[in-house]
Structures are given as C-alpha cells and as structure tokens.
Amino acid sequence: MPSSTSSSSQRLPHLAWWRILLGALLILAAFVAAMEVRLAARGFRPSVIDSEALWLQQRERASALGSHALILVGASRMQLDMDLHVLQRETGLEPVQLAIDGSPFTPILAGLARDPTIRGTVLVEFEDNVVADPDLNDQVSGWETQYERQQHQHRVPDFAMSEAYLTDFLHGMLRSYADGTRPITALLQRILNPRPTPQYLTMLPDRSMLADYSRISIPAIYYGRAIRNLGETVNIAPDTTYAQLDAMLKKRIAALKPVDDTAYRRDSREIAAMADAIKAHGGRVIFIVFPRSGDVKDMDERRYPRKEFWDRFAAATTAPVLNFEDVPALRGFTCPDGSHLDYRDRPRFTRALVAALGLGKNAGAKSKP
Predict the structure, then answer these.
(1) What are residue 322's DSSP bridge partners?
(2) How many domains does the chain have?
(3) Each residue of 11-65: pLDDT tens digit?
(4) Domain that holds residue 91
C-alpha cells in the first residue's frame, strides 16, 4: 500500500504545471493590459476589423430585409462619407454597408443582380476607373462568391465560423489591433516609437468608417493620396517644399490624357443590365458620383472627361443617376485628402444626399398638392 507521502509527491508535477500555466496567463494578461493603457494614453482607439465574416453578416441582412433594405455598394468613399444612423433616420429604411475598401463595385452589384431576394434600394458609389479598367486589382470580391456558395449549403455554424466571429469580436475590443494593425506592430511603432503615426481611421461595427483628419498632417496625407492616384513614380528630394511638390504634380496632371474608353463602353452596358435585373425582381439601383477635391478631382477629370465617360454611362442606363457636381448642396464639400470626407461632415453630407435623391421619409408627401 503506497504511503501518503509518495502519493503527495506524485501530484506535485501536475500541480506545478498548472501553476506555471496560470502564471504565464497572468503575465500575458498584465502585458496586454499595459499595452492597452499605453495605447489609450497615446490616443489610439479600438477599431473593428473589416473581415469576410463581418461582410457576410451584412450580405445576409441585405437579402433578409427585402424592400426595407438600403444597400450601400462601392469602396472607401461609401464607407467614409455615409452616416448610417442618419440614413436610417432620414429614410426609414435599414442601411446595409456592403462597400469594400479598395475594391471595385461591379462584382458585388453583379451578385445582387443574381439574387432574386434583393428587393431594396441599392446605392452604388460609381467610379469611372472601375468601369474603364477591367483588370483593376480586386482582392476581396470573393466574399460575394463565398456568400453565394453558402446559400446552397445548410448554414450550421462550424468551428471555423465561430472562431472567426469570436476573433473579430476580440480584436474589435483591443487597441492593439486598431485599424488593422497587429500587437507586435503596435508595440514597435505605436508604443516604443517616441513619435508614432496617429490613428485617424476607425472602423465601426456597421462596417462604415470614420476619418478624423485633425489627427494627422493634412498636407502630407493630401499629397500622398494625390501621388497614389497619379499612379506614377514621383521622385521627391528631402528638401522639397509642399509648394514645389504641388507645382510638380500640377505639371504632371496637365500632361494626362483621356484613357481608352473601349472597355468603358462595353462594361457600361453590362452594369446597366445589372441594374435592370435588380429592378426586375422588385429593387432599384441609384448610381452616385461622390465628392472629390483638388488634385484628385483634376486627375479624374483629365483621365475621364465627363462628356466621354459619365454622361455616356448616364445615358446608357435607365436607373437614376446623380453626380455631386450637379447639386449645389453636395458640390460645396471639401475632401481633406482629396478623396474622402472628414467624419464631422458625414451627417450633413448624408442628409444633403438623401434630399437630392428624394429618399426622405416625407419626400412623397411633399410632392402632393
């Protein structure tokens, strides 16, 4: 019969293992908490990660809401410029944010056109370059393909799906993952760096984004955006002033020529057909050109002259269209980076857009005698 002494000694390694594990978890929790406190002190805020799982949730809502859905399709302008709370209050409809940053609107619109359950109003952020360039890089249009694949399967939450939702929820609560970064990056660039780049973008749970341009250098982000939009190599000497850089860009912009419109003419007809398909199963589509400013606007006008591009598309579709330049209440907005609105302008812009589109709850009543 084993003694009580030997039995006790056999349990020690097991107990020691749990003590080590518990100690490690406590150290990790303390380290995470210390990072969160330091990041908060430096002005960083939690931000939802825009994942496929989050998008798929909204895509399901677009179908389930039927005619009560107000579906937003496009890219970063649709995410940054539209205030979903104002949209819901002004229209009485349920906004569904399906825009995807940096992605063309066409694959998502095509998916909506194939879906007979889409019977709501679809607002499309129309961009000439998306239609003119069929080879435009698109990394996430597979999200619509994944949604359609799932519709043919029984939607029983599996481990991978549950893990994705839980991971997104956890990351959305931690500043270490703010605006898509990772803890190691946050540690090196936002905590240990004496002058970290401020966070100015925040992703909300409804997949819309807030841009606070007061937190960053406006000239730096404005000219950075202009150079990216130009799509050319711009060699900038260390001592170049913003005035010199501006003159350099103006010279490049003046030399831009209209792009080939062959693909634009062809794809315009296909996009118009998508709108017709949505209309056929009870929905409607409205194409909108969003505000842009400064060099970004000048580049677009050089590459895609309105008469040869937007006006031709507007004539090719039976769907309603709206260009911000045609509405004084929309034309007055300024994009700090040349391409997007500051979050302080979102509510006013959204109200003005709803009024211009005639989507207000009382729009029909106002037209009656």
Answers:
(1) 288
(2) 1
(3) 556 667 777 777 777 777 786 777 667 666 677 777 778 888 899 999 999 999 9
(4) 66-146+200-369
